What does this fold into?
Amino acid sequence: MGKVHRPVFETEDSYPQEEDYTLSPTGNLGCETAVAVVGGRFLGTFPTDDAALRFVRDRMNREGYWPNVWMISDHGNAEIVNDLPTVS
It folds into this structure.
């Protein structure tokens, strides 16, 4: 059985933790989405948020490990992603 990351609740400090995924704007005027693992490594750049989320979903399913996923704004604000795409 794969590791399962603890869920984040409203009462907790809501910011990415070690091994969580982060998606952030990158490229010219933030027109692409970068994906990385907190405390880990850069995983790639994608043309859209949806493409980046599909990549994260597929990687988590392959690894059997589902950490939290965060969108980081161009101002550094973090918002947890509750819904990953269900269709490729």
Notes: Strands lie at 21-26, 32-37, 42-46, 69-72, 78-80. The CA atoms of residues 54 and 88 lie 7 Å apart. The chain has a mean pLDDT of 87. Helices lie at 49-63.
